[in-house]
Amino acid sequence: MAATTPPVSRKQSRGMSIGQREALTGYLFISPYLISASIFTVGLLIYAFYISLTDLRETFSRNFNFIGLQNYITALTNRDFQISLVNVIWYALIVCSLQTVGALALALMLNAKLPGMRIFRTLFYAPSVASSVVISLIFLWLYIRTGFINYFLGLIGLPNETAWLQTPTGLFEVIGQQFNPEFRISNQFLRGPSVAWMAIMAMNIFTTIPTLMLLFLAALQDIPEYIYEAAQIDGATGWKAFWTMTLPMLRPTVVLVLILGTIGTLQVFDQVAIMTAGGPVKTTLTPAYLIYTKTLGSETSAQAGLAAAMAFILAAIIVLITWMQRRFIEQSSERL
Amino acid sequence: MAIAQERPTTTVQGRRDPRLPSRALGLAVRYTLMSLLAVIFFAPFVLSFLGTFKSNQEITAWPPAILPSEWRWENWARAWNVQIGGVEGNVFSKWLFNSIWLGVVNMVTQVFFSAMVGYGFARIRFPGKELLFTFILATMALPGFVTLIPGYAFYARLGWIDTYLPLLLPSLVVPFGILVMTQFFKSLPVELEEAAYIDGASRFTTFVRVALPLSRPALITLAILQFQSSWNNFIGPLLYLRSPELMTLTVGLNYFKSQFRTEWTSILVGSMFNAIPILIIFFIFNKYYMSSGSTAGLAGQ
User: Fold this and answer.
1) What ipTM describes this predicted complex?
2) Chain A residue with minimum CA distance to B275
3) Structural domain includes residue A16
4) pTM
5) How far apart are alpha carbons A299 and A195 in whole angstroms?
């Protein structure tokens, strides 16, 4: 485009109307996205779906057949996939709820108009800029039997002998063993999340709270002052003001934090890949990690077609759950 | 949008509270609690930073001591000079360099193209705009994992495995960036651009000369977030980079850990190579980070 041409003659060029000319400019501006999205979003999705309908095993292989929806049936009846889904649902439930409550509590504490709040905000947020790799490596060390986690637990008088990331005992077994040391649950699906898995959950909650705190803080600061003053006149202070005024106004942020949390936790991968590789006895196996091993496995263990089908099932579950969260919270707001 | 208005941090509310002593006590409790929390949030980093100076026996000894018995600065030098098979020279410096240039290239391209596409959506009328924008929002709700791993098969067929192409090309322009920039340009007054436009500047010139300089705060916020996401990216390089020579620091660290499981001090020093630069960036650009809360909030609406 010639920058110096007067607008009138430019608009009349090539026999296009002003509107057509404008539209062409628009498409040129968004062309990077159009090109990128058609290859790497739409193209990849179609390709991924096509792969999921084949019996492709080793990724580089050119030897595969079309087998329809067989992979989807195989995936749903695959024991490892079922275990990984149960694991990740525990993970999402516990991590999402605790990190949302924790982030909100932290934001409320920081929202006060007191000196030093900016410094605390900065200090709280800083650790969350570190990568999941660094966090995982650091906690891998903190969680060893002779590590600092056990050391601090010992200082406050708690049991300090646990090898956190090697313990497959389920939560319900741990509770039962408080009463009967021999307590075991034979069904793998009913044991609850393992000690190793809960250790990773705790780490994840700890590192995500500051990021989500920032979202709540931004929303809290958007609530106009007069609303609190009005509430105060009505006699609503403290907890009552929080439940009747603040929380309803934060509803969109709560939805956002829950949805972001759900999408993130259901795809959890980095921590598992670095810390446990799915062990002990598959109690930290997640769908994302399973899909990864099935895609990149050796020639005998790779099942790329099946892995693609699992990825679509996981995506469908995530979309379904986030949609339900949105609906549920919107409906509950209508009832109020 | 972008930059959250910094509220004046007025000291304690003007009104006098009759229950002054209990208020002072409340404040003391609040500050103590927050200081304690700050210590807890920082503890893992401080403990592992101190751990980098311990010997390999001391670092797994029971009971663990917070301070090293002797400050072994040579641990850092040793980690820096670590060599592994298949890589010429020092691995950590190589991985660090790869992470830096990938982060910078990703940041520059993403910021420029996000701004360009965002400008198109915010300012120019063309058929299908609403539909396309809805499509962008929909792809943001799509879990990244769906295309990530089957993408591996796709790039394998293209011969892109063990090159940087899968880490650069698909992320030239990302939905999050487009969304942020579109909302930002919509919040800018259009008059300045109209003046330039009437003066005969083309749309593109107006975008580069007028709109871009005005959007500095949004561009900086976006740039930091994109650099950080590239710097911290793990699964991408893990999938697409095979040879240790090409790895970034994140996957390099994981590779190093799998090779030298008991070399805790070197693992922790390597972690510091990754964590310290991003922490420095955070403290320098702190105010842009704090505004990212409202940016991300906006992305979710």
Assistant:
1) 0.86
2) A130
3) no
4) 0.87
5) 33
